[in-house]
Amino acid sequence: MKEVINHIKSNKENYINELKDYLRIPSVSTSSSHKKDMLTCAKFVSNKLKDAGMTKVKIIPTKGHPLVYAEWLKAPGKPTVLVYGHYDVQPVDPIKLWKSDPFEPVVKGGKIWARGANDNKGQNFVHIKSVEAFMKTQKKLPVNVKFLIEGEEEIGSENLELFLKKNQKLLKCDAVLISDTSLYAEGIPTINYGLRGLAYMEVEITGPNKDLHSGSFGGSVANPINELAKLINKLQDKNGKITIPNFYKDVIPFTKKENANIKSLNFSDAKYAKELGVNELQGEKGFNTLQRLWGRPTLDCNGIWGGFTEEGAKTVLPSKATAKISMRLVPNQNPDLIAKEFTKYVKTLVPKSVKVKITAMHGGSPVVIPLDDPAILAASKATSKAFGKKTVYTREGGSIPIVVDFVKLLNAPAILMGLGLDSDNIHSPNEHFSLKSFELGVLSSAYFLDEFSQLNK
Amino acid sequence: MKEVINHIKSNKENYINELKDYLRIPSVSTSSSHKKDMLTCAKFVSNKLKDAGMTKVKIIPTKGHPLVYAEWLKAPGKPTVLVYGHYDVQPVDPIKLWKSDPFEPVVKGGKIWARGANDNKGQNFVHIKSVEAFMKTQKKLPVNVKFLIEGEEEIGSENLELFLKKNQKLLKCDAVLISDTSLYAEGIPTINYGLRGLAYMEVEITGPNKDLHSGSFGGSVANPINELAKLINKLQDKNGKITIPNFYKDVIPFTKKENANIKSLNFSDAKYAKELGVNELQGEKGFNTLQRLWGRPTLDCNGIWGGFTEEGAKTVLPSKATAKISMRLVPNQNPDLIAKEFTKYVKTLVPKSVKVKITAMHGGSPVVIPLDDPAILAASKATSKAFGKKTVYTREGGSIPIVVDFVKLLNAPAILMGLGLDSDNIHSPNEHFSLKSFELGVLSSAYFLDEFSQLNK
């Protein structure tokens, strides 16, 4: 490993220059005007994989933007890791707020500033470079490696999902390695081991058959906005528990190890509240903030509308009111079952004086990788070696649907070896990525390949 | 009276032709392109008042559209009635839905079809014609009469309010006679003796200082939409009673006479529910529908918005959510006091985890004229004679702010001698007015002048 590590350390500047070339390609997947740039970027990635010594490098066309696939499978008896990443980036609007050209990377203050610097070019490039370091110094890799870098993550990964379903054999592996999340804090090696799922519903309440004058009719008929408010109120009790029957039935409680990990993180409620500009945090009673964010289901209204919403005072008693209500789910809650329970329950809550229409808009499964999974342990050791600190474990409150697809379809654990920071402005102007994290990322990736090779297949 | 009545009956056709001329003037007050038509219409009204035998007829300029004033004060020792009406009309959009030209009146099916046919040209014209009938046949009126016909009712009567405040002596009277409401049902003589008031509030709840991702943050902080829903829910109890402290303190209960009147109306909940397309009516427990509409205060959300309100499923935990909440008030509730109590109470309802901003948007006083007021009794007898049926008493759930101003500033009862029907499409395409109601209106007005003259001044 020494040669590999030294190679990486002495090539730091080269890596940054190569990353700059990667960042110069305006691979904005959402805009059709960048279609050509997307192909240019896929070619760039495939060339870098070839240069790194990967074999069978292919640009695979899809109905949308192409996938890049590569493999190196010359380590018989050793486990296989599939590295996932994406070469597409978010749009740059509002362009005015950028301090430098989003597609002309600038190094300043120990950071590289450009669209995609963190999300995800900077983070996926570390794995290409770690493979290269092995190949350049050892002529071989310690494990079998596959790469799958897509161009549609920022627009929903639809074509990747289709590809996954049809190519489970090609993509067969013992772990999926993904760097697309954040460090717990700067300089702290972090492995994310869980994501919440989602059940997203829309509820429409209809009262009278047309908008009425709230003077002439107020007091005689149910008001759909008031009824919607009552309904939303009934979905949670005063302790913040969700009142839907069977809602918590399949929730896996925190393990002792998880609780010990959370305790060790010394999360500051005060600092968090200050950042969000609130006087007090709020959530389900009986759980601390990280428990609530990472391993407890929630119910949040994401939108609500009805009646008169302009400036002024129109006295309308509206015919309809609508809310978008989503529930974040945790293992082993099933989004389809939760949507059904929600629907059944909500129907019982509305009075006869109104009608209710409930639509399941979107669902996604939660996922958690056991903290004693050998791949998780290997990743933990690897990042600890690279950063020179004890690795911490986090879960993420949001969902990354494609991770769940990997875990389910390939039957392999996902290793979320995030290297960014929440403050890196990943979907905003002035995106950046710490060059220190970038370097430690290449080292973490290299250590992981080594650690992973010590597992029995 | 016989001569007066015969004169009216034999001039029916003339009245309709004159009303047609009145309706041909497109006096849309809200549109600056009709400024000239407004003056034309004011001149038309003043000429009709002169023709009717009124004296001191004046077109009084305002900052907006002119007022028309007239008087006949040659009945010493007799009471004075002030007739109020408005010559301006609502816009005609959507013009496509009209079956005939809104400004080319058509008589069909016993109705006259045109913009303003009911609201308010048809209804104010009856009083000009009844005065004329007296003057043509008796050369005098049985009481003193003043007319005040404005051109800004459909845009808020602001300039009339100013004029009222400055001209209380000029407008001094013993009753204000207004035909601008509806009959309880076709052919039923109706006197409206009360209007509800209004306190219209806006409540804005702010949670985190920016929109957050509901996955990454859901469960850790209060959601402003959920909190707004909880707040709205707390404003009423399960019996539909409003929970604001001191809210009902000043509410005058129904009198025995009022309850007897309501009972006599045989209001059909089933028919009303069917018309509104609801399976069941809803409102404050312990009161029937007409009681709730006419004499009980209400609380209705008139609008609500927050978060993502487009198609689809965006997972946002919004920073803000806002509702417009209005309360209809009844005598003797004071809109300013109610707004204060609301504000004080709402502040106690929100948790520390969010901030609340409460704005009083608009207020108006309720009014009720005692059912044994001599002017009410005179109007009741008059309409009963004209229609040949017992007069019924109604109140209106909505507010007509200018009526309250008349009552308060002139210290006189308002007689709402409505002649329209709720089905006359007054603010919609194909407005119309029953010719039978028009004729019975002229007769009612004539009988009223006669009945009112029998009161001691």
What's the domain count of chain A? 2
CATH superfamily of the largest domain in chain A: Zn peptidases
Count of discrete alpha- or pi-helical segments spanning 4 or more residues of chain A: 14
Question: Largest interface: which pair?
Answer: A-B, 79 and 79 residues
Oligomer: homodimer
CATH class of the largest domain in chain A: Alpha Beta
Measured distance between first and last alpha carbons of chain A = 21 Å
Which structural class should the secondary elements of chain A be placed in?
alpha+beta
CATH architecture of the largest domain in chain A: 3-Layer(aba) Sandwich
Which fold name fills CATH's third level, the topology of the largest domain in chain A? Aminopeptidase
Count the E strands of chain A.
18
Largest sheet of chain A: 6 strands, mixed
Strand content of chain A: 15-25%
